[in-house]
Amino acid sequence: MRLLTAAQMRELDQRTIEAMGIPGIVLMENAGRTTYQILRQEFPELDDPVVVLAGRGNNGGDGFVVARYLANAGREVIVLLLAERDQVQGDARINLDILEQLSVLVYEITSEEELREQVPLLQSAGLLIDALLGTGLASEVRGLYRLAIDILNAMLAPVLAIDIPSGLSADTGQPQGAAVVADVTVTYGWPKLGQILPPGRDLVGRLWQVDISIPPSLAEISGVTLADPAQLRLALPHRRRDSHKGNFGHLLVVAGSVGKTGAATLTGEGALRVGAGLVTVGIPASLNAILEMKLTEAMTMPLAEAEGVAALGRRALEEIAAAVPGKTALAVGPGLGTHHETVTLVRELVRRSTLPLVVDADGLNALAHDVESVFASQAPIVLTPHPGEMSRILKCSTKEVQDNRLYVALEVAEKTGAVVVLKGAQSIVADPNGRAMINTTGNPALAQGGSGDVLTGMIGGFLAQKVDPFQAACLAVYLHGLTADVLAASHGTCGILAGELLLELPEVINAFALGNLPKTEEQPCYRLVIS
Ligand SMILES: NC(=O)c1ccc[n+]([C@@H]2O[C@H](COP(=O)([O-])OP(=O)(O)OC[C@H]3O[C@@H](n4cnc5c(N)ncnc54)[C@H](OP(=O)(O)O)[C@@H]3O)[C@@H](O)[C@H]2O)c1
């Protein structure tokens, strides 16, 4: 499902009106009618009165249409218009005038005092409809609207928001000074980014997407999508009946240092669990015996160490180069440590690689001050930073990263030419061409050491099977989260080990491949089916 910005949505409205010849008043009618349908579905036991708080723009216009359908159905509906009637123009004005013909009560509210006088009415309402501000919100909420939002949020009655809760940025998901907390939001055409990105997702309540006659092909204007299992399934490597291990690639993992052999193990096993044909784990030589014991199905490769420490040294570069023939992808970073020789090794490896590679953890820390090496590389690269690693790459605070997750991921993807996986709740996968996927799976069970190593292995495993890097990252992120959701459904979100993800993965992948998705998550967005 595509997600749009406010500007993109405006452009689609315009194109539909001007190029397709569908009048704006028809779009407004469709918006109001479908909202009324959802209102009846969501609130079958509705108590009167219903109060519509309307602004003077088209969002208010949609609210007038809903008020008309309610009045025609015999409901007691009252409109509080936060403007003078004459300030309402165009299609919204037409619908306001129709309400007058129907003798629907419309109170013009132009001062804080007048608004406060309506609090008893709002307290008596069975449902409040927020039609104050939609995608036309341009800055921090001003004036009367600000007070109206605060009053709405203090009411006990449920709130249905028209298009987007007033005050919520459609682009970032951040409240613009204040924002309505809705129980249900009906959004037109396509969901807006700010309804999916945190904290917006918690303000929209149950989100409904309705068709208002904007042609679906127009949504291709946006490269940002919600994870779509049906699309992702197409990227899963096909396992033919007559296949053998040579058909599924050979991943070379470069990982581990003293105390971190677990990271190397989980990465190697993550790759095997997504079907990589062969996996070799390169590790500092003195740790090789440990890996030989821990790993049964993957091979190990002892590599040269830095002087006097169980961490990879510069000399390992040539050993790795010699091992590359026959390999189909590289995974670099888990548990490598930050010894200066290891850092140099990682940078050189990334510069010289011709194989697709995924870089994680200490691999990313090695690149943080040398992002150019990513750009300089000829190889397709996937970077998998968590917010802390991303903040080191961008030299900004973690909060800045978290407040702008989508845009930060897109920026780093463009800067480095790599696919970027920004991990965390709702992981984001972005590519240098402005494409991005917002993930819908995963839960706090993943907030534990080792889960990132499994993900790196999974991405590496798909890269080794020649899955396109963006698809490999999307697929791995989705399945990794889905596996955690399946485990959380029976075990909760506390104490699930990364190794348990590995055990559960084959069954989850099998169900996913067959289209039998386990029912684990609340849908981020519902769609009204018009039959
Ligand atoms: N063709 C259609 O009929 C159609 C199609 C799809 C969707 N829609 C609906 O129309 C909405 C967009 O309509 P719109 O472009 O007219 O915008 P709007 O969301 O209705 O908002 C426009 C109004 O908000 C005020 N405003 C903007 N920023 C503000 C702020 N920071 N503080 C206080 N007030 C602020 C503006 O005041 P000023 O005028 O003073 O700047 C203007 O009156 C959508 O969200 C959707 O609900 C309509």
**Structural class, please?**
alpha/beta
**How large is the count of helical segments?**
22
Would you tell me which CATH topology of the largest domain applies?
UDP-N-acetylmuramoyl-L-alanine:D-glutamate ligase
Question: Whole-number average pLDDT?
Answer: 95
The value of Rg in angstroms is 27 Å
CATH architecture of the largest domain: 3-Layer(aba) Sandwich
Q: How many E-type strands?
A: 18
- Poorly predicted runs of 5 or more residues: none
Give structural notes:
The chain is α/β, with parallel strands linked by helices and 531 residues long. The protein has 2 domains: 217 residues, Rossmann fold; 285 residues, Ribokinase (UDP-N-acetylmuramoyl-L-alanine:D-glutamate ligase, 3-Layer(aba) Sandwich). Helices cover 43% and strands 14% of the residues. The chain contains 22 helices and 18 strands. The strands form 2 sheets. The protein has a 10-stranded mixed β-sheet with strand order 8-17-16-15-14-13-12-9-10-11, sandwiched between helices. Strands 3-2-1-4-5-6-7-18 form an 8-stranded parallel β-sheet, with helices on one face. The longest helix is centred in the last third of the chain and has 23 residues. The site of NADP nicotinamide-adenine-dinucleotide phosphate has 29 residues, from helix 2, helix 3 and helix 7.
